[in-house]
Design goal:
2 domains; 14 helices; binds pyridoxal-5'-phosphate; single chain; Aspartate Aminotransferase, domain 1; Aspartate Aminotransferase, domain 2; seven-stranded mixed beta sheet; alpha/beta
Length: about 425
């Protein structure tokens, strides 16, 4: 059966005349999988309906924010109440305090937070803060890690940049790019070399504690510990970019999960309950480098927006109430899918790797283990495109790229998960393995 997408196709024809490439974020483009994007009409729980009336089970979950699925009642009712009180103040409000207190309560080592409107702003401001505090210029990131689209961080950036095959982004000056040094993920020695050569000039190391933007790549044992030790040794700040892992891997994010405290951390996605929110968080001694206490400038007209704050607060409060059994159940569903697919592929000798941790996984089209960008970039993206098309046609939405995560939400039922496995097995049998 082939789903009919006539309305999406004509919407997309119009969209490309109004919006570059027809999409407001390149990761939404289907060019890499030889298709046109599905235009969503509405969503509820684990389901999404498109403008042609097709129903899908959604495993994109808005790229992470919707950990309870679409249209969660707790979040919606908080938002509805706030709408009558005011949608934007540009002034302090109690909702900011509530969300800030919640983050301080649940994330290890965090004493203060600064709210922004996206993950990009959070990481951009975190590295500015690190540079201001240390009075050093250089930063280190890891190949294949994505930290949003600010100039300094768009170097070897995985995700959409990798999907579009863009090695270096025009518009980022050579001077800016030269202040960003790149180490290999899961290779502490590559970071040690950079510190040995430039130790006195490195302001910070920023890392996705679990890589999600080259597909899911968990940290190997000891990797995060080594980064922590090197940063301490050389007086550089360690920034955990927890935009995906925050409130997902555990309530306290990767810092709780791995028992490692960063100096600064950044949040996005889940923190806004589906609204545009980001946040820089950390110890008071660092956070008070920000104006108006300190001299590192950072600002935002819509920062701490009351609607976004109550949505985030409702979502985090619900996660806190649900407790660790909630995270265990998400992880159980995710590992059910991952291990079912791993077993199936082993039986059929398909050259596929399945990486999973917590409630995220990626199926990589590669015969070799995927542990960093070198190994991820060798995946067969043509085979992925075939797999993606079969999944879409079977009514399952996953990100249209090999280099992204599949997200499990609380709204996914055991039935949804079993149906996903069944569809994926059928899709894998149709992949032209010689291509
Ligand atoms: C999504 C993401 C960002 C960027 O967040 P936006 O809200 O899209 O700007 C930064 N870091 C990581 C790890 C992300 O996954």
């Amino acid at each position: 059966m082939t789903l009919v997408h006539n309305n999406s196709v004509s919407a997309f024809q119009k969209a490309v005349t109004l919006i570059p490439g027809g999409v407001n974020s390149p990761v939404r483009a289907f060019g890499n999988v030889n298709d046109t994007p599905v235009f969503y009409d509405h969503a509820r729980g684990s389901k999404v309906w498109d403008v042609d009336g097709n129903c899908y089970t959604d495993f994109i979950c808005s790229w992470g924010p919707l950990i309870f699925g679409a249209g969660d009642e707790t979040v919606l009712s908080a938002v509805k109440q706030q709408l009558d009180k005011g949608v934007s103040f540009g002034a302090p409000c109690m909702a900011e305090l509530q969300l800030a207190q919640k983050i301080v309560d649940v994330v290890p080592g965090v004493e203060e937070v600064r709210m922004v409107s996206s993950g990009t702003e959070a990481t951009m401001s975190a590295i500015r803060l690190a540079r201001g505090l240390t009075q050093r210029n250089k930063i280190v990131k890891f190949a294949g890690n994505y930290h949003g689209h600010s100039d300094s961080l768009l170097v070897s950036a995985g995700s959409g940049v990798a999907t579009c095959g863009i090695p270096d982004t025009p518009g980022v000056t050579a001077a800016t790019a030269s202040d960003t040094m790149v180490a290999r993920y899961n290779d502490a020695a590559s970071l040690e070399e950079l510190f040995a050569a430039h130790g006195n000039d490195i302001a910070c190391v920023i890392v996705e504690p679990v890589s999600g933007n080259m597909g899911v790549v968990p940290p190997e044992k000891g990797f995060l510990e080594s980064i922590r030790a090197l940063c301490t040794q050389y007086g550089a700040l360690l920034i955990f970019d927890e935009v995906i892992t925050g409130f997902r891997l555990a309530l306290g994010g990767a810092q709780e999960y791995f028992g490692i405290e960063a100096d600064l951390c950044t949040f996005g996605k889940i923190i806004g309950g589906g609204f545009p929110v980001g946040c820089i968080a950390g110890k008071r001694q660092f956070m008070e480098g920000f104006a108006p206490v300190g001299s590192v400038y950072q600002a935002g007209t819509l920062s701490g927006n009351p609607v976004a704050m109550v949505a985030g607060y409702a979502q985090l409060s619900k996660l806190q109430q649900a407790g660790s059994v909630f995270y265990d159940e998400l992880a159980r569903k995710c590992s059910f899918i991952a291990s079912s697919l791993r077993t199936f592929c082993a039986e059929h000798e398909f050259p596929v790797q399945v990486n999973n941790i917590g409630s995220v996984f990626t199926l990589f089209f590669s015969s070799q283990p995927v542990c960093n960008w070198d190994s991820a970039s060798r995946c067969n993206t043509k085979q992925f495109a075939h797999y993606f098309s079969s999944m879409l046609d079977a009514g399952f939405l996953i990100a249209p790229s090999q280099f992204e995560s599949v997200f499990i939400s609380a709204a996914h039922t055991q039935e949804d998960c079993e149906a996903f496995v069944e569809a994926a097995c059928r899709a894998l049998q149709r992949v032209p393995w010689n291509e």
